[in-house]
Amino acid sequence: MVEGARVSIGSEARVQTIVPPRVRPLGAGSRLEWVLMHIAFVVITVFFLAPFVWLFTAAFDAQAKAYIRFPSQPTLDNFVQIFDKYAFATALGNSVFVAVSTMILTVAVVALAGYSLSRIELRQKAWITYAILLLQTMPLSATMVPIYGLARELGLRNSYLGLILVHSAIELPFLVWLMKGFFDSVPRQLEEAAWLDGRGKLRALFEIVLPVARPGIAVAAGLSFLSAWAEVLMVLILVDQQNMKTIPLAFYETFRTAGGYNEVQYGLIAAMGVLYVLPVMAVFFATRRLMVRGLMNSTRGL
Amino acid sequence: MGTAVGAGAIRPRSTAAPSALRRNGAYLAGLSPAAILLTLFFVGPSIWALYTSFTNKALVGLDAARPRFVGLDNYQRLLSDPDFATVVLNSVVFVVGSAVIGQFVLGLLLALLLDHSERRRYRFATVAYAAVLLAWVNPTVIAGFLWVAMYDFYYGSLNTGLALFGLGPVDWLGRFPMLAVIIGNVWRGTAFTMLIFLGALKTIPSDIYEAARVDGANTWRRFWDHTLPSLRPIAALALLSITMSTFGTFILIQTLTNGGPGSQTEVIALYAFHEAFRSYEIGYGSTIAVVMLLLNVAFAIVYLRWSRARA
Amino acid sequence: MEERKVSLSRRAFLQAMAATGVVVACGTSPSTAPSGSAKPATVSGTVTVSYPDELGAKPKYVEKAAADLKAKYSGVDVKIDLQKIASGDYYTKLLLALSGGGDVPDVIHVGGDRIGELADAGYIEPLDKYVSQWEDWKNYPQAVKDGVSYQGKVWAIPYGLDMRWLYIRRDVMDKAGLGADWTPKNVDDILTAAKAVKDKNATSIPYALYAGVGADTGTANHSFVPLVWAYGGDIIDKTSGKWIGESPAVKKALDYYQRAYSGGLSPKEILTTTKPWTSMREKEGNGQLALLFEGGWVYGGWQSSNKAETEKNVHYVLHPTSAAGPSFTIGGPGTVWFVTSKSKNKDAAWAFIAQWNNKDTVAKLNIEDPHPVARSDSADVAEFKAQPYLVDSTKALEKARFIPTDANYGKVIGAIQKATGSVAAGEMSADDAAKRYTDDLKRAIGADKVITQ
Question: Could you tell me if residue C346 is inside a domain?
Fold first, then answer.
């Protein structure tokens, strides 16, 4: 047992998985340490934030270019244009709907699959686990063509169902693997206690295990949302109709066609980018502690 | 185990111990939605790709009208193409540079830094933390544009910064393309390893730290003798995971250098994409994909051996 | 919809038409002779027209043609599928759709250089039976007709032809001391002038020579092929139909690349960015780039953003040869309309194409998006004749050379991209690259289709 884990057996017990031990503060360090650490923070912050300067300056610049320049007349015109002429509202709505639905579907599927894979008794379990993970390495450029054909046969093109299914499938191998790892770290005593009490497997899962699995679920939710939010290649082959496009497609189209033959409208692209990035930024920052716990538990179980 | 048979809730069909199927039945059912999706979108297409790699199927031209089974011809063509060796080498360099050296090491360092600052209560660490996360959550298409703006020769941020120090402009994408894409990819992906290591660091019992402190071991020894070994198993898995995903990255490279100049940053994932969708030779493109898969399997086996040997 | 195969004799045809009382106008404006030819008895059903549009000029003409067609035939319905994506992506998605089962559009809009590969794949329908009875077909010069023919059949109707100019910025040339009216004396003179620009002005980009993958077909059509021609060679042997790999002209062309790139005369950006065309066109338009060999239609884009500046400073001439000054251009059929072979309503598809390709539409569209017109009567339309640029472009076609319609050209372009890319990146010498070119060609299209000289 690892220090910090408080696990009790008993049907009424509130149980917890590995909780990060309260970080025992070390007290203030030396002056030198403070200075060095803060220099490190500044360097890190600058390195990771510097590229974004382009995004936020070009978005407000009517003559934006591919490099950073400060707009002579900051304007909101780019934002107006993407909603007016490039149907960004549709793309935004579709992206949100598809990403949220993907998140829900994926969480349900991978939680169930991860739990099942964790608890199942199979001699080849380890091989199957790694095989699942390796599935994800099949490059999209090869699978795009058969998936196109499949989607067309099943009538999934230009439909929300198609988008959601494909977006869910894309991260599935990795997330199943991750969830299995997470559930491996959840002691079986919990469910066994529930079974002893007469509850069926499914009920035990829902009532006892899942509440404990919140951090893992959060990770699965976050990663699947992120992957769906960013997916572009699959949308390219699944969607032709303007009313079904998601943000990555709108982005790609604007890059390729706005401005005709002779120029690229970087201002529009940056404006789309700003609206594209802000929601995920906010969500991830708000849930970071949960994420860390979830990732921690997922990987220790493997 | 085998406690499914309990307090009268289930009527046992026989007095023998429940069969494996009975025990596992529910779990198999639980796996089925995932199994269906995986079969449809991964296993099926992979088998299709494998089969297609033995044909000369194309999306256009004579081979579209009458594709033929060509056996190992595509593989022969691939292996005899001098570019293939270059492409594999580029991929290895990219993965080692970006995943192993960049994301892994940097992620570990960042995690150590942030963990330590939490203990010291340095608030500013949160800003750095947010910055790293931000780079990770933004979609790849955006990341490409952001770094093009950084690397532009005439007006890019890096060269403008250099000019402030009186240094001449560097043609990043023209003269140091591999370094440029590695940096871009490290920027993008480090948060993931950082998060994993952060979590791992938190599980290291403080007891060990205390014991070591009492013993008089200084910070460095504590790190080397206690922290690192505890991280090893997780490190192997993190490395496996990011290696596999870095191997398949190509959108960022495409946006930054499109495999160029020449073929200096043509990694295998991008090569597969170019061959499949520029000349529309799907059979040949599938061949490259199958080879990619095999290379990934090889990496995975290597890592697993390494992690099992150490653990 | 059932395909209507019209195989009546002409006499029976006219009789049938008279009997049904349907007056068929042959898709032309009122000023030309209408009625009585090239149409089946009735055209009905749904026809799907699919096309990409980058410039924004085509939709109104497509809609007009659709409306006119619907007005002419009450039973017809036109579904327009405008894809707001780049033509390259459109082509990829189109091929995916055409290669599988399922519904395909009836009318598609693709570059005419793809005729060979599309015909070989069996995706498009030959139009001979329609054009042979189309009144307007006589307005198309034989060279234009040849440009859309493959294996003896006509496959598409062109409207705006491709031609290219060597664009020279007068202002940059003036500043470099070469004079605003500078023209190259021969092909090497371009490099000399580029060097002069580089020496006199560090912030100007002297020359944009497309190389590598990013420049797509531009690497072949706007750089390599004209250079090979300039050096007296060719990329395909017209008598045997085989593609030429290593040859003296190819070596000289690759050596030209080597000189251009190693001398810093052409920017490495071309080799790394995904849209080098856009970047270079933009820079030529605003004066940052001095020399660029590009499509004639690009001038229109510059004109529409700044007419005065463009007309004053952008000088356009033909491509020089190794011995003589500006003397040829490279032409092409332009983007054209096809009827798909899996179309379920080919007659209506043809009717749409014929309707669209009327004298006025062709003239007007090619004024907005400047191309020489495919049909000679459109060149006589007043507004067209009034544009000096368009008159020049049309005249330049007399000096145009064409790449024959061959299904393997796409793969050849791939080999060209590799050869030029590796020389430009400094990875290979010109001679080695020429040898590699032969090998790449053989690997791509088969050793039996490649010869060396």
Answer: yes
